[in-house]
Amino acid sequence: MNLAAFPTTGGSSFAPCVHLFAAASTFTYGGAAVIAVVLFVATFALFSKAIRNESEWVKRVVRPATPEALAAVRVVVFGVVLLMILREDLATTALIPRSVLDPRGKGMIALLVRVPGYLAFSANGPALFTFQLVLVALTLAGLLGYKARITMPATLVGYTLFGAVLRQYTHFFHQGLIPLYVLLVLAFTPAAEALSIDAWLRKKKNLPTLEPDRPNWEMGVALWSIWAMIGLVYLAAGVAKIRNGGLAWWNADNLRSHTWTAALQPELDLPFPAALARAPNFVLAALGVGTVVVEVGAIFVLVSRRVRLLAAPAIFALHFGIFLGHALPFLDLMILPLVFAHPHHLAKVVRSIFYEPARVSVHLHAIWVDSGFRHSASAENAPPKLQVPRSALVLIALIAATAAPVFFKLEGYPVTSWQMYSGTHAEKKVTYLDSQAECADGTVMSLRFDAHLKALHDNRHHTVVASYFDKKDPESKRRLHDLIARVVELHNLAAPTAKQIVSAEVSRREWNWGIAPFDFHHGQIVDVYTYQPDK
Fold this sequence. Notes:
Layout: H1 15-24, H2 29-52, H3 56-61, H4 67-86, H5 108-112, H6 118-122, H7 125-144, H8 148-167, H9 177-186, H10 197-204, H11 217-245, H12 252-264, H13 272-277, H14 281-297, H15 305-326, H16 331-335, H17 343-355, H18 360-364, H19 390-408, E1 430-439, E2 444-446, H20 462-471, H21 474-494, E3 501-511, E4 524-531
Antiparallel strand pairs: 1-2, 1-3, 3-4
Helix pairs in contact: 2-19, 4-7, 4-9, 4-11, 4-17, 7-8, 8-9, 9-11, 9-19, 11-14, 11-19, 12-14, 14-15, 20-21
């Protein structure tokens, strides 16, 4: 499949890079796969040689860790995944008209729809509800460390499928994607050797178990691999902003346009995006610079305990700022940075949650004291010879899998080049969408696509609407018509007669905020689609 089938964001302020990336865009997925394999082989050769030779830089950046430290990270990651699963209503995707399904340019989703039985499964509400319940049970089992060798990889497979079903009708959104990548690393690590039901059962049966507070190299490499995965993703996001937007990306006018777009088509009725859009230039520019610094600087979590100490609050602040400025909740990325906490104290907090809830607060105060591997058990107790555990192989594969999409600008679930919000606005104007419905009693209200189709929260329906205005072809018109018809149908089934929708209108509006900053109407309609129920 050619890259032309996938959305890209063009433009760069760095002239020498333009021709390089333009040439890269002519590669197919086969070319990207070759580059990924070369990167994997080269990186693995260097990394494994460094481990075998016990290179000093490896010992400085990869320190022994305890089974409890890795287990605490397992609890955090599976807790985040559980939250993201419970946040969704997967069964409501079965109510979305089949004509809205568009797997083109969505990676593995384009393959899934060709699997016999998949489309029938994804159109069956009870089956989807049952699948979500089973996935919740698997995730809980992984969190508690029960049958971990089965439940951890099973959760990975189930969560990947879960995300595919959600994205097959909408755009390729990035919420929940980093926890999926971290799950992939965790599934190949001994993350259930402590703080788990498995460990408790083995101890009860007098079977050999690892000492939970004795550090070893395998746990250290596994924990370092998780940090590396998260750092690589944020680095990719920062690189995309610099590559696509150049130094102009953090320009106050560019960020103001991004913020106004979010404020005028909000998912949550919050006053913060509009207030931030009216902030002084220096505030927006500072936020833009801070965003790029945090994203690019996240890669240093690999080599610095001090950076890990700062990474968690910095990443939390970044995504809390996105929530305030764009009304878009990245709940997963507000919690996941806990993995950068001091491993020993994080393990104590998790252990207290399970065994001594009254003592949780005693350990919380020390969780950010140091993000290194210092522990009461000396590192000299660790095995003298470093090994190459499975988690290192997975990490190296993910380095290649992360680098290839960034270089080739690949977008297809679950692979991404992290280009969201990386474009720039050349003019001081914004284009946004608005949806209104007229009721039988003549009143006009906002048309909420997610009122009954809860899987369309966070403005996921905008892809279908924008596609109609961009293409104006019969297919995109049919998709928009069918989606609105289903929303109206579900609303009218629950609404009294006077409040039943008789017509709806979706409009594209444009506002030149540079020329008319105090326009009460925020611009004017430039295109409109009027929905009338089928006779």
